[in-house]
Amino acid sequence: MPASSSPRPADEPPAAAPGRLARWRASLDPRNSLSARLGWAHVLISLLAAALAGIWLSTSSRQRIEENSGQAFQQYATQISNEIDVQLDARLTWIATLANALSSVPAPSRQRLLARERERMPEFDWIALATPQGALAASTGRFDPATAVTLQGWFRHGLAAPWIDDLNQRPDGETARAGGTPGGRGRDRGASGAASTPEALRLAAPLFDGEGRVIGVLGAQLGATWIERFGTDLIGSLRIRRQVQVLVLNEAGTVLFGPATLLGRSIAGQPSPAIREAAETLRRERAAGRAPRASAPAGHAIEHWNDDMPQLAGWSLSDGYGRFAGNGWTVWVREPVEQVFAFARSQLIRTLLALLAASAAIIVAGLLTTRRLTRELADIARSADQIRAGRRAALAVVPGRDEAARIGQSLQALLSDVQQRSQALERLNAELDARVTARTREVERLADENRHAALARERLRLARDLHDTLAQSLMSLLAEIRLMRKLAPHDPAALADELIRAEQAAQQGLREAREAIGQLREHPVREEGLGAALEHLAWRSSERSGLEIAPRIDPSLSALADGRAEMLYRITEEGLRNVLRHAHARRVELTLDRRTSDGADRLELGLADDGTGFDVRSFVDEGHFGLQGMREQAELLGGTLTIRSRLGEGTRITLSMPL
């Protein structure tokens, strides 16, 4: 051991631990294991199912809780509204009964009766008796009107029948002080929505004598605190277990009973059009006999009021009871939405945790199950890897009739067949190697022959070019020399002109030889394409000779640039050279078209002039090298060269070959 090393501590993990950790991580990689892939798919499906179940539970439970709580609040509001109507009907009955009793009591005893009744009914701030002319006959409590009795609403309405104040029919001049409690209970009607204390409620009933004549009006005022005490006692008697708020609003939307932050304030938009419509609909149904008298307009909804907090609220509209026709009050029972759904959220969280725990258990069980189910496939995969590495020759076939066993047996059969085929292929490869060696020698021999044939074709083309350039120029020069030799003894003066013509023939031959050499070096077809090369050739020939040459090239053939295209260019070049030298033409037409014959495409090259023409048969018999070379090149291309000409009618040369 090296000096720098130290003993491994007792609690250090063994050296093989990192290897086991790496194998464990690799087994969880879905790219390496089918069981891991199935397990992760199981995990994703379980988590997705849990998420969808949670969303469904959240939505359904929220809707159910909203509906159930709203209906419960609606029932509470209906009970409170009905109890208010019953209590007000009882007070109205009481005031009417007291008025009837006072009508039969002598005037001196009426004051004592009023005092005794107020002691028995302390919720009344005052009780007053007025004559039909508006004079105060008796009173008890703190009745100190600021306006005349005849101007007060309870007196005017009480002359006709028992009446309860709806808080909206008082004259502008009447204030809460006119019959209010100390401290001025009442509301300021000047600013809508401003905070104020709810008004007291007034009642009145007429007094009749034995003949049915009105002999007075009895009025009373329920203190503003009556509805607060009554509402508190009523909520307690209902035993509502939830932390809800109860509000009572009059027809003007002012809170008569409710939380301190809203008490005396006017709620904008209340009662809402929906409440008013519900009340009108119920009245119409009652008038038509389609609804019982005991039913009342009620409902529930999520509301946003002055406290800017969404509330789930149930409501019920006061619809009267007995002789009390109702005063349009609306009772609301509400609870903040967040508080309503707090229990639902806690239930949802517990449900989701339970779902996650169940999913985790299912995931673990699924992983163990998939690992057990794929173990046999893993053994087959391991043996296949060993076969590929050359460490074994056969698969580890699992006995049985399940899928893994059938896969292993099928793979083993395929492996045996592949091994047999591999051995057969090795034998065939040996035979093919021998055949390839023989064929290679044959191909080399044919390549040598092709090279010799190519050289022969190139020599033939060079011979044609030399014939068309140097040979003709030399023949012209030789003819001039012979003529000068004949003229020298007889006409020495003509030698100068013949020398000039001989010099011109030599210069023409030199120029044509240089052009032929230049054309051997140039490859216009390979550089520009057949179409552009033919157009350039036509332009160059026209510039040099003054002929009108009209090329017409099919665009689909312009891009040809192989060896065949170069031979077509040389054939065209030879034809134009013959036209320039022998035809004495004014116009030449050059065409390159695509034709269809017997379902096959063919290329057709045409060259036509309006020159002197010639006898085709005599030229063929004489072995004209230019035309003969053009025919030989056409045959090399697999095509045919057709020459049509008559003396004085021009010449047409057509080459047709397969594409």
Describe the structure.
Mean pLDDT is 76; it is low at 1-17, 168-173 and 175-198. The protein is 54% helix and 15% strand. The protein is elongated and about 195 Å long. It has helices spanning 17-28, 34-103, 107-120, 153-158, 224-238, 273-287, 337-340, 342-373, 375-389, 403-490, 495-521, 524-528, 530-545, 563-583, 616-622, 625-636, and strands at 124-130, 136-141, 163-164, 201-208, 214-222, 245-249, 255-257, 298-303, 311-317, 330-336, 548-553, 587-597, 600-609, 640-645, 651-658. A hairpin with a 7-residue loop joins strand 8 and strand 9. The chain is of the alpha+beta class and 659 residues long. Helix 13 (530-545) packs parallel to helix 14 (563-583).
Quaternary structure state of the chains depicted: single chain
Number of helix segments? 16
- How many strands in all? 15
Proportion in β-strands: 15-25%
Report low-confidence residues grouped into runs of 5 or more.
1-17, 168-173, 175-198
Using the alpha-carbon principal axes, give the shape: elongated
Q: Structural class, please?
A: alpha+beta
What key phrases describe this protein's structure?
659 residues, alpha+beta, 5-stranded antiparallel sheet, 54% helix, disordered N terminus
